Amino acid sequence: MEKKYIENKYYKNLKEINYKQIQKNNNNIEINTQTFLEIFTKIIQKNTPKEKFGILFSGGIDSLLIACICKNLKLNFKCYFAYVEDLGKPKDLEFAEYACEKLNLELVKVPIKYTEMPKTINYVLSQIIMENYIDVISGLPIYYACKQASKEKIKKVIAGCGADELFCGYAKFKDAEDINSLSLNLLKKMEKNNFYRDWKIGELNDIEIIAPYLEKEIIDFSLSLKKEQKLTKKQNKIILRNALKKILPDKKLYERKKTAAQYGGNFDKGVDKLARQARCQGKLEYLNLLKQENNLKLGALYSSGKDSNIALWHMQKQGYDIKCLISIIPETNDSYMYQKPNLKIIIAQSKALGIPLIINRTKGEKEKELKELKQALIEAKKKYNIQGVITGALASNYQRERIQNICKELKLKLFAPLWGMTQENELFELQKNKFEYIMCKISAKGLNKEWLNKKIDYKDIEKLKLFNTKFGFNIAGEGGEYETIVLNAPNFKQKIIIENSKKIMENECTGYLDIKKIKLEKN
């Protein structure tokens, strides 16, 4: 999938930064403004599409430099700026209008009312895993801009993510003894925080986010700069400002101080007003209250494995009311849609979670097996009054699209909290949050009898990563390499003990665990 590839591309760039190697490779390269401009121009030229695209635009240094280069390259694009219109004219709007007038650019203004924000906040929070809910406020201008771009049939949007981390855009750089070490730390956090959020918001609107500042050449270049080329006592992002000055010598623009998007577009002010109206102590309390007030009753598609379990847990953690588990049990082992769970296990898991279970059987025939899913969802809607469905899909478009079509038909919302998460991150998150799970079925090179009925730990993840390198192995098992059973989890009231089982092997790397007897014990 192209979007997944783009996400992995930037993720890989962030993951594989080697500071010492960068310093060694660039030791004899002349580092100056012109060099940066040439590199950045080539990157933008290489990564922008021939068809019309968008730029997330604020009139700030990062997006303005991108727009200037795109203008000089005579590329076909629009600038998008989203803001809250009923709380006074935002600071960034003035700069965006001025810059676009100066450059003769097409500026698409996306005004919203602050009263529109609660519904959007709730939706974004339900779709994106964020440790800090406050981060969603920063994502609102991106969400509304991407939504408008999508309405206008734009498929790709350039964002300035990474510029602050690389070129000292944050106040904390002023007090840092080693700015490149701070940059490295912030870049490592980006994959889980800012960039993941921005990419996911684009994905929700069928938009591909292009991030030229996160290209390997720019990361390498930035980490080769001296402190004075990035930062002075009075100004940050020195080399970006100097580059912009060469193209657009307008002091008002290239000397402009940084304003975060949530402030420059009145979004923070909007959430603050909503919080005061709700008589909350602050924005975080308001966001938590909003989550409770807009709670939906959900059914969870449940297979007994790690993906459906951690997806369910994420939605519970966000305050959603999970009314039932929905399991489709195929008669064949080769279903296109479903893992074939052990009936004893899935009934025990339902008891351990304290959530009722709906079971429907299917012959597992391609496309036809969707009828049984639809019937199960109709039953869940009638019996438990569910308003939405959770799926544990990470990257399988085949599953997600078909589930989404059924949900639309039944007027149910679809929640895919793991969507876009990397395989490695999912496995580490399972370990971090103390999910206990075993492989119950294997079918891939590298795996053998010893992996069956084995509780997966950090060391096993490292072995799976080696299999990925050697065999092209999907380390999360989403390609059918293996199936899992969760025996215990943070939301289990009881844990499952396998008392009697037998390993059945068809060949050296294909087999399953035949579970004879289990019991439940209190946690």
Number of DSSP strands?
A: 14
Largest sheet: 5 strands, parallel
CATH T-level fold name of the largest domain:
Rossmann fold
Number of helices: 23
Helix content, binned percent: 40-55%
How many structural domains in the coordinates? Answer: 2
Q: Determine Rg (CA atoms, Å).
A: 25 Å
The CATH architecture classification of the largest domain is: 3-Layer(aba) Sandwich
> Order of strands in the sheet with the most strands?
3-2-1-4-5
Summarize this structure as a short list of keywords or feature phrases.
single chain, 523 residues, alpha/beta, Rossmann fold, five-stranded parallel β-sheet, 23 helices
Question: What does this molecule look like?
Answer:
- A five-stranded parallel beta sheet has the order 3-2-1-4-5. It has a five-stranded parallel beta sheet with strand order 8-7-6-9-10, sandwiched between helices.
- It folds into two domains: 2-274, Rossmann fold; 296-522, HUPs (Rossmann fold).
- It has 523 residues and is of the alpha/beta class.
- α3 (33-47) packs across α13 (238-247), α7 (135-151) packs parallel to α10 and α20 packs across α21.
- The radius of gyration is 25 Å and the shape is globular.
- β13 and β14 form a beta hairpin.
- The chain is built from 23 helices and 14 strands.
- The protein starts with a helix and ends with a strand.
- The protein has helices spanning 2-15, 19-25, 33-47, 61-72, 91-103, 117-127, 135-151, 163-166, 179-190, 194-204, 216-222, 227-230, 238-247, 251-254, 261-264, 267-277, 283-293, 306-317, 343-353, 369-384, 397-409, 423-432, 458-471, and strands spanning 53-56, 77-84, 107-112, 156-158, 208-210, 297-301, 321-330, 357-362, 388-390, 413-415, 436-443, 482-488, 494-507, 510-522.
